[in-house]
Fold these 2 entries.
Entry 1:
Amino acid sequence: MERVLGLDLGSRTCGIAMSDALGMIAHGIETYRFAENEYEKAADYIKDIIDKNHIKTVVLGLPKHMNGDLGIRAEISIKFKEMLEKRVAGLNVVLVDERLTTKIAQDQLIFADVSRKKRKKVIDKMAAVAILQGYLDAN
């Protein structure tokens, strides 16, 4: 099995998680910050991580509305998927429903008694972990 990358894309941040070499456990890498809507720059940054770690599969959160509809954020995620696939030949980018992953991450951090200030710094990374771990568990 190979490592899998998990992403939680926002308008100014991208939470990044990676699986272990066996593809069983997700762990947080970082929260990448970029200028608002600078998705090309973010895609270049993610490409470097993909190249350095020989990633073949990326799991990208697809933000749906609670009723299942796709909004503007989902359209941005779909375009980001296409950006990554153009930059890396043979890359498989899987879109997964990310509803409630930020809430799950928030609850875990509160349970761990992490201060509000520190939670704000790591919430996107933890959401990426939740997205990736859900994918790994399902597969």
Entry 2:
Amino acid sequence: MNILRMTSPNKLPIVVVIGATGCGKSKLAIELAKIFNGEVISADSMQVYKGLDIITNKVTKEEQQGIPHHLLDFVNPFKRFMITDFSNLALPLIDNIIQRKKLPIIVGGTNYYIESLLWKVLVPKEVVDTSFCGSSQEANNNINSNSTFEKNNSNLSNNNLPEDKISDIQNVKKIFQVPIDFDTLDNISSQELHDMLRIIDPKMANTLHPNDRRKIIRSLQIYQQKGVTHSQLLEEQKTESGSSCYGGPLRFKNTCILFIQCKQNALNERLDSRVDDMIKTGLIEEIQGFYKDYRNYTTSNNILPDYTYGIFQSIGFKEFHKYLMLPDDEKETEAGKKLFAEGLFMMKLVTKRYSRKQLKWIRNRFLKQERNAPPVYGLDATNLSQWKEKVLDPATVVVDALLKEHRPSIESLPIIQTQANIKQLFFCDLCQKSIVGTMVWEKHLKSRKHAKMKKRVATEQQK
């Protein structure tokens, strides 16, 4: 009996699989899709790019086992792909999958992308074809030369800003009331953009770090596209039921989150082995080939290379950059081998550091009391030999219960009780440091570094 066929589309659950890199998220998503007639939506900001399968650790066609995968391997890697582009494509996909009475399984990767789907957070809509409801290949066809990926509008370049661009309120507001390609802001510092935001939306600027370029630009985009400030729209959102300090209410009524957990020591060993395997299967050759293609692209288009955005954020590019920039005849020298060893060490270190960062994000954003979140079910993948008993079987129990509109026999993880951390921008004159958040600010004031600086200033004043 197919439970999905008997379930109303409005009551079909949304299943989300989260966890640190290397814990087995894709494996579980595919297994659940086979059991419950589901389709997988990838929520990984690096796996959207075409090619570069090794460095982004994409699931192969064989590993997909015939399960439809969406938003995977379809964006030109020379272009930028933003969270807006992702949500504008993913949300219609989810609706389409549900209407076909299949189970949407979101797996990632990039937890910020997942948030944009589960909550009605304020993400500005770009010019993207949101009618896409098919395969990743169809998505690629729909992202054409008229989309945000291909635009080259220079309405806001460093050359046509007014001289007094920061202090003149009217000029700043006028600039951001016209269509802007935000990819042309590279020559404007994050501090300058933050100063502009402070003029347009001081309340929002007071919650953002001056170096948080992505969020600053996002707020400026909202002002440009909506005609009102980001802070004003957030206030309107908070009037909706279920809203929180993070934004709007839950988008879907019947959602569960499957959180694959793994003891850090076991995960570290797994990640080290994965990096070694990536090297063996051609990681260096893949990066070298891409560097060559990228240099040809930048040269033919008369633009300066920029290794700070898009696919270059994948772990591996930065870590092996010095080694890859060596002439071929120097790579086998002692100096070349040393740079390779350093790159390998750093890639393993950064990968493990990234896994801890992902887990911190999950705890802070999915498990804390500040937010109305779907139930989160913990699955223990520390011992892979017990995968079926500890991961697949309990996940199946949870999804099956939700499909039958029953309460799962497995308890969800408890909500973490925390002290409220109010988003507010502080500046320490002693340390010359910007800090966001009341808890972080209080921690800084009690830190040894601040005390040391305070003592130094007092000593200098006594002289």
